[in-house]
């Protein structure tokens, strides 16, 4: 930006903020609550809005919103029945953060329990920990009252996985392993040549690969932010992870 245009720019910014604040003649009650979500997951936003507009906290509204997506299996990327791993199993990752206390609760690679975001809230509110994983997360969630153990597979996830197996387990997330073009078990490919790894062409290749990965077809999942009537912020996310991931990811 040319130096001369900075005052104009600042003027624009201050005008913009004035307009936003100008709408808010009566204080926070007018500006909040607020619900923002990734993707057009309207039912999730509606559920969060209903919760927060009815007086629930930002944390509880985030949980209601993300939980709705888990139930609806939004895009097949949230909740049970989607994104089979290499073993054909669906597992759940979720996180919630309270913006007032800065507490975080999360579960990862949780098996047999559908309610990811509720499990994350239980970790946050009833433990001194931040993250529980795998089968131990499931045991915790069930012991704290969530339903399970449940079968998280669906006919769609099993069908997807069967086709992937038939396609020699391609695509997958392995690298520098043998065998390259077929199903495992995989083994390290031996010594990776460092000088070859660092050639300009290889680095360019990685950069191109990464940028070509950014589109609605390769990232998904609900992430949600809520500001409640008190002006308190909470954020959360819930997903069943990457399709054909290596179990444990
Ligand atoms: C889980 O559900 C899937 C899909 O309906 C089914 O194919 C599979 O057999 C079930 N697994 C168990 C252990 O019941």
UniProtKB/TrEMBL annotation:
Subunit structure comment from the entry: Heterotetramer of two alpha and two beta chains arranged as a dimer of alpha/beta heterodimers.
This protein's record includes keyword Signal: yes
PANTHER family assigned: L-ASPARAGINASE, N(4)-(BETA-N-ACETYLGLUCOSAMINYL)-L-ASPARAGINASE
Active-site residues per Swiss-Prot or TrEMBL entry: 221 (nucleophile)
Pfam families linked: Asparaginase_2 (PF01112)
InterPro entries, A to Z: Ntn_hydrolases_N (IPR029055), Peptidase_T2 (IPR000246)
Signal peptide: 1-22
Catalytic activity: Cleavage of a beta-linked Asp residue from the N-terminus of a polypeptide
Keyword set includes Cell membrane: no
Source organism superkingdom: Eukaryota
UniProt entry keywords in alphabetical sequence: Autocatalytic cleavage, Signal
Entry's Gene Ontology molecular function annotations: beta-aspartyl-peptidase activity; hydrolase activity, acting on carbon-nitrogen (but not peptide) bonds, in linear amides
Residues with site note (Cleavage): 220-221
Name the record gives this protein: beta-aspartyl-peptidase
Database matches in CDD domains: Glycosylasparaginase (cd04513)
EC number: 3.4.19.5
């Amino acid at each position: 930006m040319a130096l001369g245009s900075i005052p104009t720019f600042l003027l624009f910014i201050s005008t913009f903020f004035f307009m936003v604040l100008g709408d808010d003649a009566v204080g926070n009650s007018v500006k909040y609550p607020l619900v923002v979500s990734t993707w057009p997951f309207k039912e999730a936003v509606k559920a969060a809005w209903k919760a927060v507009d009815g007086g629930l906290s930002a944390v509880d509204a985030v949980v209601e919103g993300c939980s709705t997506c888990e139930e609806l299996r939004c895009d097949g990327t949230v909740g049970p029945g989607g994104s089979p791993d290499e073993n054909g199993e669906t597992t759940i990752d979720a996180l919630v953060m309270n913006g007032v206390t800065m507490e975080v609760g999360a579960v990862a690679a949780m098996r047999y329990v559908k309610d990811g975001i509720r499990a994350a809230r239980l970790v946050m509110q009833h433990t001194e920990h931040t993250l529980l994983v795998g089968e131990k997360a499931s045991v915790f969630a069930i012991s704290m009252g969530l339903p399970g153990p449940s079968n998280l597979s669906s006919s769609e996830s099993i069908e997807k996985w069967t086709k992937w197996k038939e396609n020699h387990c391609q695509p997958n997330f392995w690298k520098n392993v043998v065998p390259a073009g077929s199903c495992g078990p995989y083994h390290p490919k031996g010594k990776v040549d460092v000088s070859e790894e660092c050639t300009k062409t290889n680095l360019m290749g990685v950069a191109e690969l990464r940028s070509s990965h950014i589109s609605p077809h390769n990232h998904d999942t609900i992430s949600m932010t809520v500001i409640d009537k008190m002006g308190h912020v909470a954020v959360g996310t819930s997903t069943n992870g990457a399709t054909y991931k290596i179990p444990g990811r």
